[in-house]
């Protein structure tokens, strides 16, 4: 009677493992053979198991290629991906790394971009010359997509349109943005430094330990809205101060003029009481 065979976990995994040639791997991973070779050359992808002259890949290669494709779609360069892959190999979880990246570099606004046609922009701001549209795109207020334009902040664009309807020329609005933007950029850098300063205690050339990443992500997400509140509060204070100073100066000027006019009028008026005494 034959002895029952016992399959080890490693043997069971090997039996169920999918295997691929390089062409098959490229096809199932939605990439090209050329990319597979390039990723191997850069150390992003482990070499295949050699069986004679044929390289055999498995599902771990498919999983790694999916990670690479995902990161490329998010805008990472191959150099960035290489750093992330090294971090993963050192024990970091990709989700925690991307969570940290998203907490720091993700959008700070919940606005959804909106597409505007040339006709819609003309209705909002009046007919625009190519030079005016070029300036708007240079400032990043609109991005051109064929014959349409996409605003990352529709609220900002619509506020500008409302101001234009109140008689403020769009050119002056663009001038104001050009002057103010460097100041906003400087404030933003200060606040971002303040929010992410919690990373300063780690080596500048390394990621925080995997055990620290979740707490850091949570802390940064809590600090982000507080930074926005700080900016809004300070901006409101500055607007009130500037408006009060302008209004106060304007009122003072008007009062000075009124008083001067009154003094001049009185100085030029005949002295009726004096004339009566002389009579």
The gist of it:
Helix content is 65%, strand content 8%. With 279 residues, the protein is mainly alpha-helical.
Question: Any overview of this molecule?
Answer:
This protein has 12 helices and 6 strands. The chain is mainly alpha-helical. The protein has 2 domains: 19-91, Multidrug-efflux Transporter Regulator, Chain: A, Domain 2 (Orthogonal Bundle); 114-236, no CATH class. It has a 3-stranded antiparallel sheet with strand order 1-3-2. Helix 6 runs parallel beside helix 11 (213-268) and helix 10 (170-196) packs across helix 11 (213-268). It is elongated, with a radius of gyration of 34 Å. GO terms for molecular function: DNA binding; DNA-binding transcription factor activity. InterPro entries: DNA-bd_dom_put_sf, MerR-type_HTH_dom, MerR_fam. Residues 19-87 form the HTH merR-type domain.
